[in-house]
Design a protein that fits this description.
The chain is of the alpha+beta class and about 150 residues long. It has helices at about 40-50, 70-80, 90-95, 100-105, 135-145; strands spanning about 1-10, 10-20, 20-30, 85, 120. The chain starts with a strand and ends in a 5-residue tail after the last helix. It binds a DNA duplex (13 and 13 nucleotides) through helix 3, helix 4 and strand 5.
Length: about 150
DNA sequence: TACAACTCCGCTG
DNA sequence: CAGCGGAGTTGTA
């Protein structure tokens, strides 16, 4: 049974999906129908803690669905702390991938905020993309909020 | 096979 | 020196 709930934040509505006690998807937007669960309520709390700068990371039981490489990259992204950024190229080099591919993997990230893909920017300091999730505007907002000066 | 949320390098002004 | 254009790269759909 899949449960889902929407949470209102200063960045807009965020929706989380849970199955078998684990969060498997987080995205922007509001859901019409919600089926809440203790796990999701808990996630709601973590999310607010995270937003109010108490935590570096969003704590949650989550499930990563993807292949080996995607997981590797996502784990790498999770190491980036609030206020820090990394370039696509940096990560690509580390794992012997092409930078473009790193970008693609980021866009494949379904666990928004849990996996902070918005902290990955271009080598020259410009933002890169974020279109598949919430738009570059949102990326900028998130980074600014986390203390990264663009 | 074509595409992708990039980067590097060389050329022009 | 800054700005622009093209090639290179490699896992996915």
């Amino acid at each position: 049974m899949i449960k889902k709930m929407s949470i209102k934040t200063k960045f807009g509505w965020i929706s989380a999906y849970e199955n078998n006690g684990k969060i498997f998807k987080v995205k922007f937007g509001k859901l019409k129908k919600q089926i809440k669960s203790p796990i999701l309520e808990n996630f709601n709390k973590s999310l607010h803690k995270f937003i109010h700068k108490k935590n570096h990371f969003l704590k949650a039981r989550y499930k990563l669905s993807g292949n080996q490489i995607q997981k590797k990259i996502w784990l790498e992204l999770k190491k980036i702390k609030k206020g820090q950024t990394k370039s696509y190229g940096e990560i690509a080099k580390k794992y012997n991938l092409s930078p473009r591919h790193v970008g693609k993997i980021c866009s494949q990230n379904k666990l928004l905020l849990i996996i902070p893909c918005h902290r990955v920017i271009r080598a020259d300091g410009s933002l890169g993309g974020f279109s598949s999730i919430g738009g570059v505007k949102l990326k900028k907002k998130l980074l600014k909020f986390e203390g990264v000066f663009i």
